[in-house]
Amino acid sequence: MVPIKIKNNQRIQEKDIPVMPYDEFLEINTGLTADTYFHCVQYFAVQHPGNLKLYCCIADDTTEHILVSACEVSITNGHEYPSFTARNLAFHAFEREIHENTGMRYADHPWLKPLRYPENRKDKTLTMKNYPFYKVESEELHEVGVGPIHAGIIEPGHFRFICNGEQILHLEIQLGYQHRGVEQLFLKPSTPLQRSVLAEGIAGDTVIGHTTAWANLWESLCGFTPGDDIRHARTLAQELERVAIHTGDLSGICTDIAYQLGSSVFGRLRTPVINTFQKWCGNRLSKSLIRPGANQFPVIPEFVKALDDLFTEYERDFYEMYDRLSKLPSALARLERTGTLTTAQAERIGAVGMVARASGMLRDIRWTHPYLNYGRIPHQPIVKYHGDVYSRTQLRRQEIGQSIRYIKAMAQQVPPTSQPVVLETPEANAFALSLTEGWRGEICHCAITDATGRLAVYKIKDPSLHNWLGLALAVRNNDISDFPICNKSFNLSYCGHDL
What does pTM read for this prediction? Predict the structure, then answer.
């Protein structure tokens, strides 16, 4: 038996997904992901009385296909199963979530700890207060705890360091403080508009990335093919969001190495970018811009002029400031060879997006599983190979320049505006999956409908789910004073993890 092959944003009947015995399910999916060009984009369980149905979705980055398979397992009588994670570490978060939510037991999972502490977890006795942090008994080593309440504006998360003097030997990151229940909220009877607003709040710095995934998925379920203008506007918006957030991150990186000029200039340059979103749709974070079946805010000539004015001012100051940063010895001393995630480590944890590309992995959904207008853009992913803070800094600078070129080209060829279509009823008993490449990396939304066409399952994956472990590995053997700059260079999402 072989998995069914689908494309990004393709709808199929759920019954067409092959259901395999667990041993075969395990062998096929771990066998596929032994190849670097295959990786797991979603793996989840749906509960039925007395058993679970597991769905595994493996992306083939060489053919644009996604290989989907399923398996039914019994969770009664304490039955244990061999874990995917024991064979491929990249599955660890998926299986930890399945265990936490359903009680499915694994015989050999190497790190079976709570992932999110959701309200609907199987064992309510497991709480943050008794989280089993890794410990080392030693008179020479000491622990440092940071969070969950932080100075500044970042969200709740706890970082537990084991240090030898100033040197970090181990970092364990525990999230799961927010209990938002986003996936369950998608299943409540509501309109596409209400769900669009919900999608905008999955990760507040990735409104376009997540809402585009939601809109593409809903349109697929409803059998709607978006017009040229809808694809054009969403593609442009994704690249403008990338420019905005990457610029703000460069400001944060400069802040964490005490380079005040860079912090101020990059911070100032972020403002006109997000203000351009406000000119476009009335909201600086681009809320209300993306809606299924509609292009609510067409790219009109006035907005094209606003983009031209933006980049005329932005590019002059941006490149001058980055040139200064890249030539400043004191800055390079903090950025180079700090917080290194090697290519081997990135591959082993299944890193995605910017973090993967900064560590030598060619992983970019715009290139491997193109959607919207990316199949028409001659996009070539930017890849760096040192995996350190400076590589992640350089990647941001180069991706900003690339995104600006894409936006300028798209602004010169604006298709006519199509009429909006109301999409209320998806196909019954359907399965669909949508991948987008947000500024942080690979976003996956997956849905299954019931016999009436209502959403029965909705699964969300933010790229942070893959990459938090990368941060924990990257800080090893660094001084603890370097943690802030390492953390900012990854800039992972707390709320994107705490669904």
Answer: 0.96
